[in-house]
Amino acid sequence: xxxxxxxxxxxxxxxxxxxxxxxxxxxxxxxxxxxxxxxxxxxxxxxxxxxxxxxxxxxxxxxxxxxxxxxxxxxxxxxxxxxxxxxxxxxxxxxxxxxxxxxxxxxxxxxxxxxxxxxxxxxxxxxxxxxxxxxxxxxxxxxxxxxxxxxxxxxxxxxxxxxxxxxxxxxxxxxxxxxxxxxxxxxxxxxxxxxxxxxxxxxxxxxxxxxxxxxxxxxxxxxxxxxxxxxxxxxx
Amino acid sequence: xxxxxxxxxxxxxxxxxxxxxxxxxxxxxxxxxxxxxxxxxxxxxxxxxxxxxxxxxxxxxxxxxxxxxxxxxxxxxxxxxxxxxxxxxxxxxxxxxxxxxxxxxxxxxxxxxxxxxxxxxxxxxxxxxxxxxxxxxxxxxxxxxxxxxxxxxxxxxxxxxxxxxxxxxxxxxxxxxxxxxxxxxxxxxxxxxxxxxxxxxxxxxxxxxxxxxxxxxxxxxxxxxxxxxxxxxxxx
DNA sequence: CGCGAACTTGACTGTAGTCAACCTGCGTGG
DNA sequence: CCACGCAGGTTGACTACAGTCAAGTTCGCG
Lengths: 236, 236
Description:
The structure is a homodimer. Chain A folds into 2 domains: 8-130, Jelly Rolls; 138-213, Jelly Rolls (Sandwich), CATH 2.60.120. Chain A is 37% helix and 21% strand. The relative contact order of chain A is 0.15. In chain A, strands 2-6-4-5 form a 4-stranded antiparallel beta sheet. In chain A, strands 1-7-3 form a 3-stranded antiparallel beta sheet. A 3-stranded antiparallel beta sheet of chain A has the order 8-10-9, covered by helices on one side. In chain A, strand 4 (48-53) and strand 5 form a beta hairpin. The model of chain A has no long low-confidence stretch (mean pLDDT 92). In chain A, helix 2 packs across helix 3 and helix 4 crosses helix 7. Chain A is an alpha+beta fold. At the A-B interface, strand 4, helix 2 and helix 3 of A face strand 4, helix 2 and helix 3 of B. The first copy, chain A, binds a DNA duplex through helix 6.
């Protein structure tokens, strides 16, 4: 919730939410496509992918979620059309009942807005993914995802030169709409700039990576508006 | 706001929002990419497209908005990363100040949730677009968009056999990540099922169109949960 | 040590892109 | 009222990026 300003009381209220730990095995589907749920899940460790699929069962990953992300917060207000969720490696999630989230949002408008804003960051990323998959070639697509995940995995710190990204080349293809074979060839072409090995991304040249990846981090940045923008205005 | 249940008082409060009418010429950019705004806009008539673009300026439409849609409601809580907005034909929009939206959301939790839910429908559509652009061939892609817009243009009525869709083949290509030339060829191949002419889509065979378009409307359906799901639970 | 998942490589194919020419219909201005 | 211009649509020939298929190879784990 670093993306919004909350008072201590609000922060305590969030930390007091009832949670239930759940450990997912690598490759385990946590939420099946079109499944309805009454919990939202916070990724505590590991990594999950959200995905959609065609009627033929071909999967398309639509989002990656790192520790700290609510992977399906949107389901709290709209439990349909969330897509499936799949653990990319052994992952611990904390399940929070929708009812508790909604009750909290009702009581604290600033929390409602913080949740809403969090969902809107996801939406901005999704828009960027449409552009990525639709308009960029294989090198740019993959480099772009590596840039995005570098920023998101680094939190407020300096950009990490290496970060965990426990996906197979096949899964990276599911995220970029490429085949595993072509991901492999593309990674080879990028090897001077970035490598994916043992479930980690190693960035050798960040400047070149952002250039190849046609990457501008604006869409990921926290709101840079005046501070009060991060909180709801007092009720009129 | 038909997607949520609101009391009369809440409905009146929404209708009392300060608005400012604005008429956009066809092809006019209303919001430039990366532009920050302090208004959200409701489409009153006509049609707009939201778009992203690569650094080379190639555009990718990420959403269409029909009358009744808030095209950039998400900007109320997160004014960055919205992308650009372009009028596809002469369009009237109603601009509503972010401040008013946020004040209303703060005062009426059910309205906050209705706004949030509305944004989440957009997000669900966006996920479907990633799948569409990433995983489907040209015929399926175009047919899928035609299906989506048929449902959204029909509102609660029966599905219209003809509905306004004032886009050029080139713009349809910008939405489906195809070139204008290929859109043209694909439309020809689909002409027994659906045609795009004079700014309207004519559906000749809805059953076939959904089959060709690999279309399942679940992601667009209003929440089918028990009624109270459509409103925030009373504050604990 | 042996199995299987993931990765690697090569040869060939196919869908959609590119380029270029031409057609059509509409709105404007002479 | 006609003619011009132009945006949008249509078609053909050729190209290219990524997909497909198939045969290895490597590596980690039981």
